[in-house]
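3.2 Worked example (two chains)
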Amino acid sequence: MSASTEASAIIDFFKRKSIFITGATGFIGKQLVEKLVRSCPDVEHIYLLVRPKRGHAVNDRLKDLFTSPLFNTVREMYPNFEEKISAVQGDILDPNFGLSPADETILIEQCHIVFHSAATVRFHEPLRLAIQMNVASIKKLLALCHKMKKLQSIVHVSTAYANCNRSDVAEMIYPPPIQPAKLLDASEWMDDQVFDVLTNKIINDRPNTYTFTKALAEYVISQEARDLPLAIIRPSIVGSSWREPIAGWIDNYNGPSGLVVATGKGMLRAMLGSSTAIADIVPVDVCVNMMIAIAWNTAIKHPKNIPVYHCCTGHLGTLTWGKVTEYGLHHLYNISLENAICYPYLQFTENRFRYHYLRTLQEVVPAFILDCYMRIIGRKPMFLKLSDKIYKSVRTLDFFTSNSWIFPNDNSVLLQNEMSDIDQKIFNFDLKELDWFQYWRHYCTGAKQFLLREDLARTAKCRTRYLRLKRIQNILYFTTIALVIKLVFFKSFKIRGIFLAIFRLFFAALSSLVAKLGLRAK
């Protein structure tokens, strides 16, 4: 072991420690597991709460987890790292997480550190289910933690937007608009339809059930974890990795990732929001590094009150949604996704009428034309359905792309100051060196490579397709303008001629698509 590693107080703290992680198969959870076994190789053991899924046993899911490219680096460093990790079968929806007596005993007797990241991240999850997953689960976790004999630290993953009904959110726990106990009780007996009808009234000024239930969970913690060594981390919008272990690693379509893919494929071309609003996006590896540092600091300092740490980038004031669009489009042109249907383009507008006009013209109409062509060649239409799915997904982001928040990070700065130079390097969450332009290059590349699993060697061919699409779009654009001018300024132009020109344009476009893009009946 190197001298620099020996000098790390955080690595030394994690030696011979057993760790329990919920949500380990999620985006943040995977990154956390990888970072722990790579940077803290002397941990005693890591227990992951995993539920069986679609006929796959928990051990099979664990093996699938380790096949991710995310673990390539640690596998080269420590080929036997998997021996330190075990899957514990359970489900956050079940009483006591559905733990077997044997597994519960192991956790109670051996665990020192707990990371709780399990939650539903669907913005519009039915309220009853969101309460069960995000609020009831924390009560179960705290009950389990109260039994742990060696417990030194708990880190709960919340969200910076738990209190998004405020424009300036302090690093503190706010009282909820309704007592969680009442909702937990109602979720046990109230009819689903009644719950759904009352949802908007219950969540009041919050945009969705996700942020609402995350706020309730924090309040439950403030009431039931006062005697526990617990801290809360509030990440903002979690994006692809910045540096560790691979730049641009991503494995889900949530948030910016879905926007990158939908825009790169030419399916998303307009969004409701402000180009000047702050895009508070934090790399997942930064979030994980802070989580580990928080666990260490909580165990060492024994804070009297429950500390809250904002893990955000908005305070830097350097990234807006306009910049996200600018950087993303620049890199998408160069990286080029496969099978795009339109040349990539995206614009934000705050005007709802203009948004729906742009969406209809640039997304719905092309999707309709392509579906018509799919029917002609005997294939199942899919583009309108896909366009509608993208529409519903991006509309959940309207609130966040239209507003900006202030998330002070005083506690995060204090935490960083508590760390040694070597720990600040190994568990870096200082974003002053983050180059957003380069970050988005890696983000777009990661979406292509890890999310879509497209071959980077085909980039040149995909770029050629992009250029062809651009030519086709330009031809259609200028032809349409010419038709309008002719219709307006040449009164003698007959209606029959107009329709003939439109049909010629339509079939010319289809022929061009067939010839250039290779759409063939199979």
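3.2.1 Second chain
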Amino acid sequence: MSLDRFIKSGSLGTRVNQNDKFGQLKVTIAKFYRVTGGTTQNRGVIPDIRFPSVYEMDFGESTELHALPWDEISPALFKPMDQVSPYIAKLRIKSQKRTAHDPEFQYLLEDIQHYKDSKSLTLNERKRKAERERLEAKRLRRINERRQRKGLKPLPKGAKIPSDEEAPDAFLRETERILADYISLSNPNGGTELAKTEKGRQATPEAKSQTAKVKEN
């Protein structure tokens, strides 16, 4: 799982000092290969499930004119376990349905679109201040929407934002959910035990106390 693609540079370089006048010369001396024989050069590692990302365009070494091409060598001797591929399609569908209704992912999509639409940065002080105020208002709105989903009162404008009110890691949380889906699909009994564990955690005195505090607020 990835935002887009893991490392697209699969080469190893070293710098050779020329002199103070000409600086350094970068020389490629090796290339990395995976056990399947293919290199990560240019293509990176293509994820099975993609998350939204600002960096959907090509960038980095792979865009350079004389970047080394992708190639492959004889694979290493190993026995593929193939424990995940039978479930990839179902895992992808479950994740897509979940993230389509996840407010945090909707925030991410909103930010990505804003980034793509922003073609320039104004140097006008008045406009920059207005933009900063707009971003602060958006941040407060999202914080209050999260608080509302927790049953908490909204924070007024200008209030000090508690440190625990920052945006959660939506990618990490969804990755955990995908892992839980995989456990359920690949091992029904394991999935049942996982669900029981989660219910048990919610039933602990500490969890009940936290729930009571939320309701009181």
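3.3 Remarks
Confidence is low (pLDDT under 50) at residues 1-7, 204-217.
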